Amino acid sequence: MSRVLVIRHVAHEGLGVMKRTIESGALVEYVDLFRGDALPKRMDGYNGLIVLGGPMGVYEEEEYPFIRNEVRLIEDALKKRVPMLGICLGSQLLAKAAGARVYKGNAKEIGWHDVTLTEDADDDSLFLGIPDKFRAFHWHGDTFDVPKGALMLASSDLFPNQVIKAGPCAYGIQFHFEVTEEMVREWIELNKDELAALKGKVDPKAIIAETPSCIEELNRMGGALAAKFMRMVEKQALEAGSALKKGSSCCSCH
């Protein structure tokens, strides 16, 4: 059975709607950095990597020393072409590992905002069947440049670089397609001080009011993306097993 490594930075940012699909299709190993878990140094033995969100910035290595180790691990995943899904902070860590700059954006993008796919997403297997424009849930203030050689697959008005693809099977997604309605409400409650500091620029009541009309479609897309990602993971596991039989360590996904 394939093995997937999942990195969690805070307790309340988990797999959400992806959980059942990921855990039913692979042996999942969680690394909870908020509990002090140690990261593996390499991706050897893993067929997939999921890096979830968190409030810290990629440029805050002094305050969060594990960031350096995460970047090195993602670099190893890129080198070995292990399928990766980075969400929010995870997308920013992927951008850093791929050689791009990560920095504060001009504003915070929190709540429900439109995302538009680019032409480069038209033939991408992960986004096949996803509408060209859809409403997604966001909670981030940092952004990144598109790494050299990577593709930019989606954008929003506030943050032009919403989704990047680095290499054949590593995706960084700024928005949160994994959230459930319960997660949205929990995040608003847990982060009420952050919202208050924005002095009315983000209305939590409006976010909660819009959630019922948006969450079902987002969850459908999130489930579809998770299933497609797991097909990449399964392919990598098969190729890795075949390579071992042939005495080679080379594998790829497309």
What is this structure's SSE topology?
Blueprint: E1 3-8, H1 19-25, E2 27-32, E3 48-51, H2 66-80, E4 84-87, H3 89-97, E5 102-117, E6 133-144, E7 151-155, E8 163-166, E9 170-173, H4 181-190, H5 192-197, H6 204-245
Parallel strand pairs: 1-2, 1-3, 3-4, 4-9
Antiparallel strand pairs: 5-6, 5-7, 7-8, 8-9
Characterize the structure shown.
By secondary structure, the protein is α/β, with parallel strands linked by helices. The protein has one domain: Rossmann fold (3-Layer(aba) Sandwich). 35% of the residues lie in helices and 24% in strands. It is built from 6 helices and 9 strands. A 9-stranded mixed beta sheet has the order 2-1-3-4-9-8-7-5-6, with helices on both faces. Helix 2 crosses helix 3 (89-97).
Oligomer class: single chain
Please give the number of β-strands.
9
Rounded to an integer, what's the Rg over CA atoms? 17 Å
Question: Tell me, what's the shape?
Answer: globular
Coarse structural class = alpha/beta
Q: DSSP helix count? A: 6
Q: Quote the CATH topology.
A: Rossmann fold
**How many independent structural domains?**
1
CATH superfamily heading: Class I glutamine amidotransferase (GATase) domain
Q: Short summary of the structure?
A:
By secondary structure, this protein is an alpha/beta fold. It contains 6 helices and 9 strands. The longest helix has 42 residues, at 204-245.
Keywords:
alpha/beta; 9-stranded mixed beta sheet; Rossmann fold; globular; 35% helix; 254 residues; 9 strands
